[in-house]
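Lab meeting, action items carried over

1. Structure of the two-component assembly. Owner: GW. Status: complete.
Input record:
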Amino acid sequence: DTAVSQTPKYLVTQMGNDKSIKCEQNLGHDTMYWYKQDSKKFLKIMFSYNNKELIINETVPNRFSPKSPDKAHLNLHINSLELGDSAVYFCASSQWTASYGYTFGSGTRLTVV
Amino acid sequence: AQSVTQLGSHVSVSEGALVLLRCNYSSSVPPYLFWYVQYPNQGLQLLLKYTTGATLVKGINGFEAEFKKSETSFHLTKPSAHMSDAAEYFCAVTQMNRDDKIIFGKGTRLHILP
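Predicted assembly:
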């Protein structure tokens, strides 16, 4: 059983489209996160949710909207995709706070053409 | 604000040689420190973490790291490199608050030479 699973693994789409990435964790963790990894491997946090409550909302274009229907799921919807959105998006989860460390999903490679 | 600096974006060592990846952190409060490894086309995997207590932390795959408060360092070592250790390594820091996140360094790519 995969602890943190993301779908899809690869996503190729045209500029202007809207797309969603889904994340699910079966670890019973309370907090989930979205990170963006750019082409230079730099990891930057986007959002975090604790038990369905938005905790962290970094400076991210409002075309990005997270949704957490329950504490085991955190989805990321992106409107009007731009070339600069191309990156690998990682979902992660932790027990209550980040100090416990994260368990990462395997990532979604988004390519906007 | 917390931050992490990894010295050297690329490090090459011969198979069987000592691996040393350097990490310095900045934190105004006691830090929680991590090393993660990322193999190609995969997510990040936790190697080890320091919370409190013993300053020498042992992790998976024979890696260990030592927390040195006076030097604000958390260097990662392995006595003998293996070809399978070739990957990207990230040092990271956080603190114990509900609204905190893990801040990652820029990564060090470890190359193993045969």
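2. GW to write a short summary for the group page. Key points so far: DSSP finds no helices and eleven strands in chain B. Chain B has a mean pLDDT of 94.
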